[in-house]
Amino acid sequence: MIYPSDHPKVSIVIVVRNAAPTIESAIKSVLIQDYKNFEFIIIDGISTDGTLDIIEKYKAHIAYFSSEKDAGIYDAMNKSLSKCSGDYIYFLGADDELYSPNVLSAIFDKNQYNEHDVLYGDAYYICKKKLRFGKMNRYRVGKHNFNHQTLFYPKSVFNIYSYNTKYKIWADYLLNILLYFKSDYQFRYVNVIISKFNDMGTSGVNNIDFDFEDDREQIIKEVFPIDVYIFCKARNVFLYIQKIFKSLFR
Fold it and tell me: Does the predicted model carry a pTM greater than 0.85?
């Protein structure tokens, strides 16, 4: 199947807990999109800081909303999946924004995508004031994750996979490497700036997932192809030696 050029439906999901200073900007960046075939879903983790009052102002534009206890961001994302009816699913951080009013139209108005295409583009890092990521390849994927706020997943991905809630920060990285190396899905780069990413947020600053680090060696052995595995191991050795030299000569 190829999605028709006349506008596949996009499910845009925000999961949030206590983001009163930023949630309104995130919501507005969705509602001003000039592409209209989308649904908007917000999953709240029982906010106590005024976030719910802000969301209430926009409830008429929200296809589904809930506020209930969850076990973290990936648990909330998993809960949202059964509520999504779009051809594609996109997760926007509560402290991030879609980059411009024509993000969705730039991606979907003039292009056709296979149902196995995972779409990704670029993000503008607000604090660093620079663009990332550009086109990824297998070795870059071995080194680091895609930016989650640049990814559009076909809905069918989540008929097979869900986020592993054992990992509090890098569950999306595990999903992405499984899709990239162990599935029939293809990652397709679109030359569009998709989001303004708050690189001082949780994934930007508190980016050590200790459970993931404990399992990293086993994960890369099981998931990475041999060439990517060797590349990553060699790179780690190089970085370790570089660190020793820096400590000796500073």
Answer: yes
Instruction: Give the HSE-up count for residue 248: Cα atoms under 13 Å, Cβ half-sphere.
Output: 6
Structure tokens of 156?
């069918």
Mean pLDDT of 235-248: 72
pLDDT tens digit sequence for 69-104: 999 999 999 999 999 999 999 999 999 999 999 999
Q: Which residues lie across from 10 on neighbouring strands?
A: 38, 88
Which domains are seen in the chain, by residue range?
10-211 (3.90.550.10)
Any long-range contacts for 197-200 (C-beta under 8 Å, 24+ apart)? 197/93, 197/96, 197/123, 197/124, 197/125, 197/126, 197/147, 197/149, 198/22, 198/93, 198/95, 198/96, 198/126, 198/127, 199/125, 199/126, 199/127, 199/128, 200/126, 200/127
Segment 197-222 shows an average pLDDT of: 82
